[in-house]
Amino acid sequence: MRLKLRNIFLVYFVVSSAGLLYALLQLGQQCDCTHQMNPINDVRRRKAPHHRGVENMPVIYVVTPTHTRPHQRAELTRLSQTLLLVPALHWILVEDAAERTTLVADLLAKSELQYTHLHMLTPPPMKLKDSDPNWLKPRGVEQRNEALRWLRENRSAKDQGVVYFADDDNTYSINIFKEMRNTQKVSVWPVGLVGGLRYEGPLVTGGKVVGFHTAWKTHRPFPIDMAGFAVSLQLLLSHPKAQFDLTAERGFLESSLLAPLVAVEELEPKADNCTKIWVWHTRTEKPKLKQEDLLEKQGKGSDPKILV
Ligand SMILES: *[C@@H]1O[C@H](CO)[C@@H](O)[C@H](O)[C@H]1NC(C)=O
Ligand SMILES: *[C@@H]1O[C@H](CO)[C@@H](O)[C@H](O)[C@H]1NC(C)=O
């Protein structure tokens, strides 16, 4: 009996020592625990941040016309990094240029966004001169139409999506992208700091758009800023001729696209029945580079190899 008890103790002692030794060995070893690492590290390895349910979401096609200027890289950096926060997004960037520039191509390649890089030169007679006030001629028209052309060639009835025209100088909350995601035909919301008002936007009663809060050219069929609506991809594909009219009177560009697509009563009000501002028509002050010109004349200008 005593012998048996001693044996049991012995076995117990050996087994627990072995367990302890094994545990100590494991502690000393580098574990293969990538799955437990900080999610930030994980994100970098992917093409874009992971978002739940991305596969089943309609894709938001963000169409951005852009042109070369001293602050272009700053604007595109700001916008691209906002877009990184939005799942299932495809950025269609269209340069007003005779060909794609390296500056924009490099920025896109490093952006980790899904994108298409297009270009379309505005015909010289239509182009805004440096000395012209910026309202003289519509801007970005040919570029937005080029994006529409690309969508019609490369997307089909089976693709679920929504198209949003996002200029590179506005400010966007990620909320506005959540709002537009499930657009059936055309969704609308107010835009801050536009039209000489704190905001411009649809007036909503009983969940329907019944008019517009605007102070300028109130007779416009759709007095909505470019940043204040999104169109379903299906609707655009089923109206192959719908596009922006280059000859439209000032303020009528948005109407020229929307009028053939939708009636005011059919507009889908978003952003809590158009009571929330989640996009702002901000404008960047034109950078003053007078000193640069002076130094350049003395051969002492800023290093051209440093990209600004
Ligand atoms: C899109 O269409 C163009 C023709 O406009 C074609 O050259 C290109 O390969 C297509 N791209 C994709 C991604 O399907
Ligand atoms: C918008 O208004 C309608 C009608 O008053 C209401 O049924 C609906 O819940 C509102 N939607 C939101 C998001 O507040």
Task: Tell me what you see in this structure.
By secondary structure, this protein is an alpha/beta fold. It has a domain at 44-50 and 57-187 and 224-263: Spore Coat Polysaccharide Biosynthesis Protein SpsA, Chain A (Alpha-Beta Complex), CATH 3.90.550. Helix content is 32%, strand content 18%. A seven-stranded mixed sheet has the order 3-2-1-4-10-6-11, with helices on both faces. Residues 31-46 have low confidence and may be disordered. Residues 153-154 line the site of one 2-acetamido-2-deoxy-beta-D-glucopyranose. It holds the Pfam family Glyco_transf_43. Its cofactor is Mn(2+).
The radius of gyration over CA amounts to 28 Å
- How would a textbook summarize the main sheet? 7 strands, mixed
Give the number of helices.
10
Please bin the fraction of helical residues: 25-40%
SSE order, as H and E?
A: HHEHEHEHEEHEEEEEHHEHEH
Q: If you average the pLDDT, what whole number results? A: 89
- Spatial order of strands in the largest sheet: 3-2-1-4-10-6-11
Q: Strand percentage, roughly? A: 15-25%
CATH superfamily of the domain at 44-50 and 57-187 and 224-263: Spore Coat Polysaccharide Biosynthesis Protein SpsA, Chain A
Low-confidence stretches: 31-46
Number of strands: 12
End-to-end Cα distance: 88 Å
From the 3D structure, determine the CATH topology of the domain at 44-50 and 57-187 and 224-263: Spore Coat Polysaccharide Biosynthesis Protein SpsA, Chain A
CATH class type of the domain at 44-50 and 57-187 and 224-263: Alpha Beta
CATH architecture of the domain at 44-50 and 57-187 and 224-263: Alpha-Beta Complex
Binding site for Mn(2+): 169
Organism: Eleutherodactylus coqui
Subcellular location: Golgi apparatus membrane; Membrane
GO molecular function, one term: metal ion binding
